Amino acid sequence: DGVTEVLAHGSDNLRDKFMEIPCSEDYDSHKRFAGCTPRKCGRGVTDAVITREEAERIRRIAERGLSLGGSDGGASILDLHSGALSLGKHFVNLYRYFGDKIQDIFTEEDFALYRDVRQRIQQRIAQVFGISPSAMYLTKPTFFSRMNSTGAKTAHDEYWHPHVDKVTYGSFDYTSLLYLSDYSKDFGGGRFVFMDADSNKTVEPRAGRVSFFTSGSENLHRVEKVQWGTRFAVTISFSCDPAHGIADP
Predict the structure, then answer these.
(1) Is 185 exposed, middle or buried (0-12, 13-18, 19+ CB in 10 A)?
(2) pLDDT at position 223, please?
(3) CA dist., res. 116 & res. 50, Å (int)
(4) What is the Cβ-side half-sphere exposure of residue 181, based on CA atoms within 13 angstroms?
(5) DSSP letter at 163?
(6) Cα–Cα distances in Å, from 32 out to 85, 165, 217?
(7) Alpha carbon 203 to its chain's center
(8) What's the count of helices (H) and strands (E) in the chain, helices before strands?
(9) CA 65 to CA 106: how far, in whole Å?
(10) Do 85 and 77 contact (CB within 8 A), yes or no?
(11) What's the CATH superfamily of 4-244?
(12) Angle at CA of residue 39, ends 35 and 45, nearest 5°
């Protein structure tokens, strides 16, 4: 595994931490959008954008939604935008499956909080990378994840493989993760690992912590297997291409 450095400890309360790294060539094979497509690349961590209390409220949204389904394996997802929900070895559309009953599960306040949090994260990313927030578009998939130590039952449960977001989802230019539970208190393992040529750099999740980065090969990453407990997070990603933009849930 080589050398491992901790970029952000669970016990840290980081106002802002940013590490600039050279951009990969991934962006060249996509249409470039002036004033948005990354020219400055890197990764940042902040505990100053979302409060722990807001993270707890958002985790409750995830818990309510995921209680309706859940994967047979260790990783379950809930996408409030498309309605995709893990159920057994498959996915169902939450909105079609539950119909009007969905109003008993999620409130208008839930969606308003989600929108507000998404906008604040978008503003912070734009500020750090020196672009206008209005040049960025929320893109899909944007989803809650719940991970535990249950063994994988399908390829969807194998969340720990190294990957590059821009390669996996061509639309991604900026990726963010909002953590909704605490490393070493709520779960063990499950750290986020940036895999650099010379070393691994890890982020220890903490409720309310936002980790964000440019989505190209400069940020190859993986998540460690969760050893015990339950890890909640929400992935919120942005595209520079208006054609890939989606509305808030």
Answers:
(1) exposed
(2) 97
(3) 10
(4) 25
(5) B
(6) 33, 17, 16
(7) 13
(8) 4, 16
(9) 8
(10) yes
(11) q2cbj1_9rhob like domain (2.60.120.620)
(12) 100
> Is 231 an annotated catalytic residue?
yes
Give pLDDT tens digits for 170-200. Answer: 999 999 999 999 999 999 999 999 999 989 9
Length reported for the chain = 249
Catalytic residue among 118, 124, 209, 231: 231
pTM for this entry? 0.96
Q: Which of 230, 236, 235, 121 is nearest to 182 (CA)?
A: 230
Which residue bears the tokens 């520079």? 240
Structure tokens, 193: 């690992």
Compute the distance between CA of residue 240 and CA of residue 6 in angstroms, rounded to an integer.
30
Positive or negative: CA dihedral 25, 27, 28, 34: negative
Residues in contact with 100: Cβ distance below 8 Å, sequence separation at least 6, in sequence order: none
Question: Minimal CA–CA distance to 172: which of 30, 77, 19?
Answer: 30
Q: What are the start-end ranges of the H helices in 51-132?
A: 52-66, 94-98, 108-129
With a CB cutoff of 8 Å and minimum separation 6, the contacts of 134 are: none
